[in-house]
Design brief:
By secondary structure, this protein is of the alpha+beta class. The protein has helices at about 25-40, 130-140, 155-165, 180-190; strands spanning about 45-50, 60, 75-85, 85-95, 95-105, 110-115, 120-125. Helix content is about 25%, strand content about 25%. Bound molecules: zinc ion (ZN).
Length: about 190
Amino acid sequence: MAVRKVLKYGEKSLREPSKEVHKVSRKITDLVQDLLDTLYAQNGVGLAAPQIGENLRVFVIDVSTNEEPLRPLVFINPKIIKKSGAIVTEEGCLSFPEAYANVKRYKNVMVKATDIHGRSFVMEAKDGCLLARAIQHENDHLDGILFIDHSANRFETEAVLEKHNLPPIEPERLISEPDIDAELEKEKSND
Ligand code: ZN
C-alpha cells in the first residue's frame, strides 16, 4: 500500500468527527495498511484515519516504537468503556511535528473495538503506560479532539505552539475534566 501525507494541525479534517465503519471491507483493510505504512515511515506510536484525511473511526497503535518485532494493533469503531486514575505526561502527535506538551490523561482504560478480521475484542491498558495514553490520544482524533485540548498548562502549550509556528490553542476547545483533576489533587496530597 502506501505512505500517506499526514495532515498538520490547522487542517480541517483533524477537527471533524469521524463516521462509524459498517463493514471491514477491502477499503478499510487498505486504509489500515496505509495507516501502518505511514506510522512506521514516521516512527510514530499511533495514527488515526482523520490524520490522513479519512474521517472514519479507525486507528492503529504500535508501542514497540519501530523495534522488531513490530506489534501493530488495529482499532475499528473503538469505544472506551472504562477509565480511572489520572496522570500528567508529555505527548506529541504526528500532526504537530516536533511539538510536545504536558497533558492530562486517565491512567487506566478499557477499550472495546473491532479488529481487522471484523472480530470484536476488549483490551485493558493500565498504570499510565504508553498504550493506555495512546488509546486515549488516538480515540480522541476520531471525535476531532486533539491532545492540546487536554493541556495541563494552557500557557505552556501556547508557547510551544508558537515556537513551532503552529496555530494557537482554541480556548473553547479546552476540555474540563473534573474527575481527572480530583484524582491529581488526591495524588498530590498523598505525596
Ligand atoms: Zn495525534
